TrEMBL record, chain B:
One of its GO terms (molecular function) is branched-chain amino acid transmembrane transporter activity. Pfam families: BPD_transp_2 (PF02653), DUF3382 (PF11862). Its main location: membrane. It comes from the Bacteria. Keywords: Cell membrane, Membrane, Transmembrane, Transmembrane helix. GO terms for cellular component: plasma membrane. Residues 12-95 form the High-affinity branched-chain amino acid transport system permease LivHM N-terminal domain. The keyword Ligase does not apply. The chain crosses the membrane at residues 16-37, 49-70, 90-116, 123-146, 152-172, 179-199, 205-224, 268-286, 320-339, 351-383, 403-420. This is High-affinity branched-chain amino acid ABC transporter permease LivM. It comes from Neoaquamicrobium microcysteis. The gene is livM.
């Protein structure tokens, strides 16, 4: 089933840069923390020279993927291949995988199996650099020193592992001057040259983010991983950041993998977007493909109402995907009450799942309309958003007790129908619904009793 | 306005009264009552006058302070006072200050001989002691100040250096100058050996394990009597020679060779210059290392080890080099200690030694080399100076023995310094590389590394 879903959600594979010429391939990556599955069987490619964005709701496992790629976590299962040469180099990768080596030389260049390497070697040898969500600069050192620390390994060799440096050999002095030039170049690039001798901790927030990117670039990476680079930036800084990332890609040939919540940044600069939800890949393609993918919309709309209101970029995604009318009906812009059939039809078409029989399990029995007293507010169940409520209404599900009566088969069917298998169990919709149904029943009887007494 | 002034006066009086009450309670047992040795036991005598005077002084001073000094509202930052400014200025002119200190230190034995001909031996001996601690402080500074690893067992390497030389001399009859580099190498090797198991530890756990290592070394030295002499120690350790010349009376001695009149002071002056040169070497090597990639990696490690890993810096090797280099200088100093004393025993290498060296580093300001010099002079010199506080007997009466109050006064001084300069005497950091203009980095931004994190 997963394979089928994968095939369905992935864009046409034949002609994308990331499938033709991937610099990084993540295959069947699984990361478990005790019983918690943070990433489940995730596979995707990062194209050479592409800017690839990894997006998803909070807790989707994006940073965990980063930590696996950069060696901060050791994945439970899976393979992460980094290639310095062009193309797939399938034979070389297979050869290294079969051996016990961490990397191997191929005709096109070296291939590295990142899941076998410690973080230090990933930066040093595989040339993958990263930044952190919460900035990790050396705050008591100057901006210049931060960039010199990043060139540690080059300088260590040049100082013949300290001995030459201690004696002040000319080779080291030359290397030191070059390192300073390189640091000055990057300081110029990120517009911090005037603050080179200021401690990093004194710089404003936006400048610290830029300095961290410059520091990562000083390790001469082939792949740069940015963890929420635009977080906390104002619109002007954010657009400067876009320029910087594009400059890095264009002038230094560095591929970029970034996690970002700012959809403006993502949509504007990404060549390729991978969407995660609960550790599972739900969409993979270019910006146009992803923004119209019903699974992405479902994932973002599965979140609470407040969150949608807080995140206009999601609302705009929904609007674009469903068309103004449907979005309005979905309760994002206004609270209308259109006829249930119309919504059902719309929801079906939005999900691209007109044929209800295509799903495994049994379709839950529905009612023709809400019972007397009006439908229950299904969005009170944690995990059901306005769009899913409408979709469920379209199935004839109007009341908590209906959901409370679902068995395993029904849950499976609805999960597949709403395009997020497994989530209903995880969020325990059925249990929540039972509680709510009981509460609603009680409320009704007391209200009736009071009314009776009044008359 | 007057209203607030009134409340202020009332508050001041109340506060002064509380302070006076405190003194009354505390002082009752220390000042008012007094036990004297009398026939058949102890006799109690009272000194009410002294007690009342103390209470009155505290009340008056407290009141005056409240009214005229503590005027700023509580919590408002107070400007740095006298010594604070001085220390800041000292660090500001650290180069000039350093040169002056260097020149003074280089000429010290001759200055002492000229100024204090009677006490010259005592003062030069003190100078040697201070120099030894300066060197140890600079050595420990590599691990604690630069790399930010709180090492509570540094004395282990001091002991290793001392015993390396002591035992080499005892078993193989090796002289100081040959044993010195061997002692350094052995200590460095042990630094790596002891460093390995603690690499994965962080914070408090790291500090506790280093503390344990310090004790283990000492306990081994005590119990392995067949080899180390156990609690009896090693005696008869040879004195250093001056290019083969012994500092002995008569034919072939140093004085005889140079046609000088024999004097025991020659040996002390020579010892002083040995430790002076060793300390200067320590200074230049550690200062230079700080500007090399390895030193910058140490400091980066102190600031953020996770960021270091992401930049491809091998944390294990970086920590181990810090350990080894620090241990090596400890070993050199230990070897010097052995030759100066001529006799070593495990008693010289207790935890209090580690604590004193660490206190010097912390008091001087983590990572600051000039601060360590000041702190050593204040701590070691001050502690010795407190032995001869003859004038205090004139204040507290002829029964007052200043030696007994030495540690108390000293502890109080330490507390005061730490209250007034919580990050040490010289808390600013100088950048290791400069693009245009050298700026000091304030203490609030500098990380303190492992063992200091809350």
């Amino acid at each position: 089933m997963i394979a089928a879903a994968e095939a369905m959600t992935t864009a046409d594979r034949s002609d994308t840069n990331w499938d033709r010429n991937p610099i990084l391939t993540v295959e069947n990556l699984t990361m478990r923390f005790g019983g918690l599955v943070a990433i489940d069987n995730l596979s995707f490619n990062v194209g050479r020279g592409d800017i690839t964005a990894l997006i998803g709701p909070n807790g989707a496992g994006k940073t965990t993927v980063f930590n696996c790629v950069t060696g901060f976590y050791k994945p439970t299962e899976g393979r992460i291949v980094m290639r310095h040469g062009p193309g797939h180099q399938d034979e070389g990768v297979a050869a290294v995988t079969a051996s016990s080596n961490k990397w191997g030389q191929t005709a096109e260049g070296a291939v590295y199996l990142l899941e076998r390497m410690p973080d230090v070697e990933i930066s040093q040898k595989a040339k993958v650099a990263r930044t952190f969500q919460n900035i990790r600069l050396f705050s008591g050192m100057t901006a210049l020193e931060n960039l010199l620390v990043a060139q540690h390994n080059t300088l260590m060799v040049a100082s013949s592992y300290t001995v030459g440096g201690l004696l002040g050999l000319p080779g080291y002095r030359r290397a030191h001057a070059e390192a300073i030039d390189k640091a000055a170049y990057w300081l110029e690039r990120v517009d911090l040259i005037d603050r080179a001798d200021d401690p990093a901790g004194d710089l404003p927030y936006g400048a610290q983010r830029r300095l961290e990117i410059a520091r990562a670039m000083c390790t001469q990476p082939h792949l740069l991983c940015l963890d929420e680079p635009a977080a906390g930036l104002n619109p002007r800084e954010s657009s400067a950041l876009n320029d910087l990332i594009q400059y890095i890609r264009a002038d230094h040939g560095v591929s970029v993998l970034l996690i970002e919540h700012d959809m403006g940044v993502v949509m504007e600069i990404s060549d390729h977007i991978v969407v995660l939800d609960y550790g599972v890949k739900i969409s993979d393609g270019d910006a146009q493909f992803v923004r119209t993918d019903p699974r992405v919309i479902a994932a973002y709309l599965g979140v609470d109402d407040e969150e949608i209101e807080e995140k206009p970029e999601i609302a705009s995604l929904v609007v674009e995907a469903l068309g103004e009318e449907a979005a309005t009906e979905a309760g994002i812009a206004a609270d209308g009450a259109p006829p249930p059939e119309a919504i059902a039809a719309q929801a079906d078409s939005a999900a691209g799942l007109a044929d209800a029989k295509a799903h495994p399990g049994t379709r839950p029995a529905g009612l023709d309309g809400a019972r007397e007293g009006g439908p229950d507010r299904l969005t009170r169940i944690n995990g059901i958003g306005p769009v899913n409520e409408k979709k469920l209404n379209g199935l004839g599900i109007w009341h908590f007790d209906q959901i409370g009566a679902w068995k395993k088969k029904e849950v499976e069917w609805v999960g597949s129908y709403l395009s997020f298998p497994g989530r209903i169990e995880r969020e325990d919709w059925v249990g929540q619904a039972k509680v709510l149904a009981r509460a609603a029943g009680k409320a009704k009887t007391t209200r009736k009793g009071k009314q009776g007494g009044g008359q | 306005m007057t209203n607030t002034a009134d409340t202020r006066i009332a508050d001041s009086i109340r506060d002064a009264f509380i302070a006076a009450l405190l003194v009354a309670v505390l002082g009752f047992f220390f000042l008012a009552l007094r036990t004297d040795i009398a026939p058949g036991g102890l006799a109690l005598s009272t000194r009410w006058g002294l007690w009342f005077t103390a209470i009155a002084i505290v009340f008056a001073v407290r009141l005056l302070l409240n009214l005229f000094v503590y005027r700023a509202p509580a919590g408002a930052p107070k400007p740095e006072s006298g010594i604070g400014k001085m220390a800041h200025r000292l660090s500001g002119y650290s180069t000039v200050f350093g040169y002056v200190m260097f020149a003074l230190a280089a000429a010290l034995p001759f200055i002492v001989m000229a100024l204090f001909p009677v006490q010259q031996r005592q003062y030069i001996d003190l100078a040697i002691l201070i120099m030894t601690y300066i060197m140890l402080g600079w050595g420990l500074n590599v691990v604690v100040g630069f790399a930010g690893l709180l090492d509570l067992g540094y004395v282990a390497f001091y002991a290793l250096g001392a015993y390396s030389f002591g035992l080499l001399a005892f078993y193989f009859d090796i002289g100081f100058w040959v044993a010195l580099p061997l002692a350094g190498l052995l200590a460095a090797m042990w630094g790596i050996v002891l460093g390995f198991p603690v690499l994965r530890l962080r914070g408090d756990y790291f500090a506790i394990v280093t503390l344990a290592f310090g004790e283990i070394i000492r306990v081994v030295l005590i119990n392995w009597s067949d080899f180390t002499g156990g609690p009896r120690g090693v005696s008869g350790i040879p004195k250093p020679t001056f290019f083969g010349l012994d500092f002995t009376r008569g034919e072939g001695g140093f004085a005889d060779f140079f046609g000088l009149e024999f004097s025991t002071i020659h040996r002390f002056v020579y010892l002083y210059y040995i430790i002076f040169i060793l300390a200067i070497i320590t200074y230049f090597v550690t200062a230079r290392l700080r500007q090399l990639p390895v030193g910058r990696a140490w400091e980066a490690l102190r600031e953020d080890d996770i960021a270091c890993r992401s930049l491809g810096i091998n944390i294990r090797n970086t920590k181990l080099t810090a350990f080894a280099i620090s241990a090596m200088f400890g070993g050199f100093a230990g070897s010097f200690f052995a030759t100066r004393q001529g006799y070593i025993s495990p008693e010289s290498f207790t935890f209090i030694e580690s604590a004193i060296i660490l206190a010097i580093v912390v008091l001087g300001g983590l990572g600051s080399q000039i601060g360590i010099v000041i702190a050593s002079i204040v701590m070691i010199g001050g502690m010795e100076m407190l032995r001869n506080l003859g004038f205090l007997t004139q204040i507290f009466g002829p029964d007052f023995d200043p030696v007994q109050y030495r540690m108390l006064i000293f502890g109080l001084a330490m507390v005061l310094i730490m209250v007034w300069k919580p990050r040490g005497l010289v808390s600013t950091r100088e950048p290791s590389a400069v693009l245009k203009e050298k700026k000091k980095i304030g203490a609030d931004l500098i990380g303190q590394g492992e063992g200091h994190k809350a």
